[in-house]
Design a protein that fits this description.
Oligomer: single chain
Shape: globular
Strand content: 5-15%
Protein name: Protein kinase domain-containing protein
Radius of gyration: 23 Å
InterPro entries: CLK_kinases, Kinase-like_dom_sf, Prot_kinase_dom, Protein_kinase_ATP_BS
GO molecular function, one term: protein serine/threonine kinase activity
Number of strands: 4
Organism: Aspergillus luchuensis (strain CBS 106.47)
Structural class: alpha+beta
Strand order of the largest sheet: 1-2-3-4
Keywords: ATP-binding, Kinase, Nucleotide-binding, Serine/threonine-protein kinase, Transferase
Number of domains: 2
CATH topology of the largest domain: Transferase(Phosphotransferase), domain 1
Length: 327
């Protein structure tokens, strides 16, 4: 049975189970000193939270849907693994609260104007009721985060397992976190939302670098010997190797988005090629991508709103520095 309570009835679903469920060794102190807490559905934590369903897991915690017996409402409960990650989590939350407070003190209170005809308004009613477009209504909810992240200026990145499908190649060869590896991870998200599938997969021999090199060509020869895992393949660094013509970024776009015309797919491909570069120095920065003409048109038939993505990218440029191990 999967983490989400669904039974795996086919071989394909069993493969997906391996992707979504935490490995057993993450609960075994003989394998790792920092283990997850083994939780069962129906268990009550802290004499208050009735565990009802699993929402997800990451490198440092599991997240559960629970019923708060004290407040009589549904809540999400994040259970951290053993070790020092709990202290790190509290420190980060304290810094977030402090940051919000500091901005409030700097910007001061928002301007207010008294409405004298108070009988026109119901208690708590906005001056103008919000009209939510029907196209934005959905019954689907998603829990997401940046996985492993670090604050700009922190000298050392937190340890943890990378989300390989989103990880830039240089991070898998021991290079330090940078804004450039964020851009690689960002473009993976961009492409997945546009075409409905990830551009790189880790289900092959050698993992994600096997598909990256198949689509982009061989890795820099000087990287050979610095791969951080044990399943390294010499073929990744073979400079005589050429990309698989039947398995390119362009062919992926055509396979996933046959509804999009050729001009639109070529526009998306041009954006991908400006970020999917092995040399982190040559990748577009967030600021450069925002200013790039190819990122600005209103693409006909596109399912991802460029305005929304531009706002997300501005957040990348101004606020965040994801470690490059994350999504």
């Amino acid at each position: 049975m999967t983490d989400f309570g669904d039974f795996a009835s086919t071989e394909d679903e069993e493969i997906e189970l391996d992707e979504f469920a935490e490995p057993w060794e993450k609960y075994d102190r003989k394998v790792t000193p920092s283990v997850f807490y083994p939780i069962c559905l129906g268990e009550i934590l802290n004499e208050r939270y009735l565990i009802e369903h699993k929402l997800g897991s990451g490198s440092f915690s599991t997240v559960w849907m629970a019923f708060d017996l004290k407040e009589n409402k549904d809540v999400a409960v994040k259970v951290l693994r053993t070790g020092d990650c709990g202290g790190i989590e509290i420190r980060i939350q304290d810094e977030i609260v402090q940051s919000v407070t500091a901005k409030y003190e700097l910007l001061t209170r928002p301007s207010k104007k008294t409405i004298h005809d108070v009988e026109l308004w119901k208690p708590g009613e906005l001056v103008r009721p919000i009209q939510v477009p029907e196209s934005l209504r959905t019954e689907d909810f998603y829990l997401a985060d940046f996985s492993l992240a670090m604050k700009v200026g922190d000298p050392v990145a937190q340890p943890g397992d990378p989300s390989l499908c989103f990880c830039s190649p240089e991070r898998l060869h021991g290079e330090a976190p940078s804004f450039a590896c964020d851009m690689w991870s960002y473009m993976v998200n961009f492409v997945e939302l546009y075409q409905g599938g990830r551009p790189f997969h880790d289900g092959y021999i050698g993992g994600v670098l096997t598909t990256i090199t198949a689509r982009l060509g061989p890795l820099p020869e000087q990287w050979k010997g610095s791969y951080i895992y044990d399943d390294c393949l010499d073929s990744w660094y073979d400079q005589n190797r050429t990309p698989d013509k039947n398995n390119t970024l362009a062919s992926g776009l055509a396979r996933y988005r046959p509804d999009a015309d050729l001009a639109e797919r070529e526009l998306v491909l041009s954006i991908m090629q400006k970020v999917y570069l092995y040399s982190s120095e040559e990748r577009l920065t967030a600021t450069q991508l925002l200013a790039d003409p190819s990122f600005k048109p209103s693409w006909i038939g596109m399912v991802v709103d460029p305005v929304i993505w531009s706002c997300d990218l501005i957040n990348f440029a101004l606020y965040s520095r994801v470690s490059g191990l994350a999504h």
